[in-house]
Design a protein that fits this description.
46% of the residues lie in helices and 20% in strands. The chain is an alpha/beta fold and 213 residues long. It folds into 2 domains: 7-112, GMP Synthetase, Chain A, domain 3, CATH 3.30.300; 120-211, no CATH class. The longest helix has 15 residues, at 79-93. The two termini are 15 Å apart.
Length: 213
C-alpha cells in the first residue's frame, strides 16, 4: 500500500509535474504494458525484498487503469496478468526468474487526492467545525475520506432531509480545493461521509481503530 509520504509517490508526482521522467531503463516495459493492456503507466519502481524477490511496482495515473489488473472484487490482483508482466520483465532484462518477481499495482490519482485532503491545515478544519458547532461534533480525516459527525442520529437525519449535508460538502470542498495542486479533486469525487457521534459511541464503543477497521 502506497502513501503520499512514500518515495515512490514523490517520484511519480515529479513525473506528473514534468519535473522528472520515468527511468529510461523501464520505458520499453512501460510501452509494452501500455500497448498490451490499453493503459498508461506513469512510473515503474523496482527494489528487492525478502532476500531476493524483485518487487515490481507499476504506478498508473488513474484508478480505471489500475482496475484493469484487479479481479471483479476490486481488491485482488489478477495473477494471470501479473505473471504475464513478470514474464515480459524477464524477457527484457533477463536477470530474474519469473517466480521471483512480485508485481504490485497502484493508482496515482487517489493518492494525490489523499495528499490534497490531508494537506488542509487543522486550524481551517476546526474553524469550519465551529461554524456548525451546534450540530457537528467532529470532522475526521482518514486518507481521502472526510467524515462529518453530527451529535445525534436525529440531527443527521434532519440535515439530510433539509439539504444541510450537501451544503456542508460544497462549503468544505471550496476550502479544500486550493490544496489540490494536481487538480484531481472534484466535488463529485470528493468523498464526504456523514455519520453521528451517537452511532460512533453505540456501535464502535467510541474507538477510532474499530471505526476505521
Amino acid at each position: 500500500m502506497l502513501r503520499p509520504s512514500d518515495q515512490e509517490y514523490k517520484i511519480s508526482k515529479k513525473i506528473k509535474l514534468a519535473e522528472a521522467c520515468i527511468d529510461d531503463t523501464f520505458k520499453p516495459l512501460a510501452n509494452w504494458i501500455d500497448a498490451k493492456f490499453h493503459v498508461k503507466v506513469l512510473n515503474i519502481v523496482t527494489d528487492t525484498i525478502n532476500g531476493g524477490t524483485l518487487r515490481l511496482q507499476l504506478i498508473f495515473e488513474h484508478q480505471k487503469d489500475a482496475d484493469k489488473f484487479l479481479l471483479k472484487d476490486k481488491f485482488s490482483q489478477s495473477s494471470r496478468k501479473g505473471k504475464t508482466i513478470a514474464k515480459k520483465y524477464h524477457e527484457l532484462f533477463k536477470n530474474a526468474s519469473v517466480d521471483s518477481i512480485l508485481v504490485l499495482i497502484y493508482a496515482f490519482e487517489p493518492l494525490a487526492r489523499e495528499e490534497a485532503v490531508t494537506s488542509m491545515p487543522a486550524k481551517i478544519r476546526d474553524s469550519f467545525k465551529d461554524r456548525y458547532k451546534d450540530m457537528l461534533w467532529e470532522i475526521a480525516v482518514f486518507g481521502e475520506y472526510v467524515t462529518f459527525f453530527f451529535f445525534s442520529n436525529e440531527q443527521l437525519k434532519n440535515a439530510q432531509q433539509h439539504g444541510t449535508t450537501s451544503s456542508i460538502k460544497e462549503e468544505f470542498y471550496a476550502l479544500l480545493k486550493p490544496y489540490d495542486r494536481l487538480n484531481y479533486l472534484r466535488l463529485e469525487n470528493f468523498t464526504a461521509i456523514f455519520d453521528s457521534k451517537e452511532n460512533f459511541d453505540q456501535n464502535y464503543d467510541s474507538n477510532w481503530r474499530w471505526y476505521y477497521s
